[in-house]
Amino acid sequence: MEILKIENLAKNFYLHNAKKEIHSCQNINFTLEQGQFIGIVGLSGAGKSTILKCIHRTYLASTGKITYQSEAFGEVELTTAPERQILFLRKNEIGYVSQFLNVMPRTTAREHVMNALLERGVDAAEAKEKAEAMLRYFRLPEPLWDLYPNTFSGGERLRLNLAHTMVKQPRLMLLDEPTASLDNKTKILVKDMLMQLKEKGTSMIGIFHDLEFMDGLCDKVFNISEGTFQ
């Protein structure tokens, strides 16, 4: 079943001070099937991250359509959907992992992962149990669980990002270089968890510079610089 369809997607940015328009991704077309993993590669600055941010609606596409088959709403056009609907989808169906951590002030690492489940209506005891299991899986040291993440290293923050998104087991997961600052042992943990989620039906789109990491994980690879699949 087709879960996501992107048609003629383009995103441009206007620099008001320089009175100049920057063209990011242009004429992007592909579909994602349920349970499929598509990797995106291409030159730096070609707009790989922009595609993910348009799907997540962090950026509003300049032109084109992004059609998502939602479990709650049926067919949703993500470029025009109401903000309330987008917020619901982010909480319940669409997960996003970036290199950068965004945590509410005065929220501990444990609370951050628990909140991903609590906002979906999961019981507090169950949320705590699952959050701790995920933190343990990604080898985030237990003494850090009740600390504020602004004190964490880059690798620790990225592991917390992964735990926060993956604990929800979203229907659609967007991964923007999720292994950028991780050691090889942690990369193996990430790959294993992605394979587990894929087997459970999670559909994924990911950007990776580590092409070896992508082997055996991606069903298709889309080269944004050439507009082709392999």
Task: Characterize the structure shown.
Pfam families: ABC_tran (PF00005). GO terms for molecular function: ATP binding; ATP hydrolysis activity. This is Alpha-D-ribose 1-methylphosphonate 5-triphosphate synthase subunit PhnL. Residues 4-230 form the ABC transporter domain. The protein has 230 residues and is an alpha/beta fold. It has one domain: Rossmann fold, CATH 3.40.50.300. 33% of the residues lie in helices and 26% in strands. It has seven helices and twelve strands. Strands 8-9-10-5-11-12 form a six-stranded mixed beta sheet. The chain has a four-stranded antiparallel beta sheet with strand order 4-1-6-7, with helices on one face. The longest helix has 16 residues, at 184-199. The mean pLDDT is 91.
Report the end-to-end length measured between terminal Cα atoms: 20 Å
Largest sheet: 6 strands, mixed
The CATH fourth-level homologous superfamily: P-loop containing nucleotide triphosphate hydrolases
Any idea of the CATH class?
Answer: Alpha Beta
Q: Largest beta sheet: what is the strand line-up?
A: 8-9-10-5-11-12
**CATH topology call:** Rossmann fold
Radius of gyration: 18 Å
Low-confidence stretches are: none
Keywords: ATP-binding, Nucleotide-binding
GO molecular function: ATP binding; ATP hydrolysis activity
Family: Belongs to the ABC transporter superfamily.
Domain ABC transporter: 4-230
Looking at this protein, list some descriptive labels.
single chain, 230 residues, alpha/beta, Rossmann fold, six-stranded mixed β-sheet, four-stranded antiparallel β-sheet, 7 helices, 12 strands, 26% strand, globular
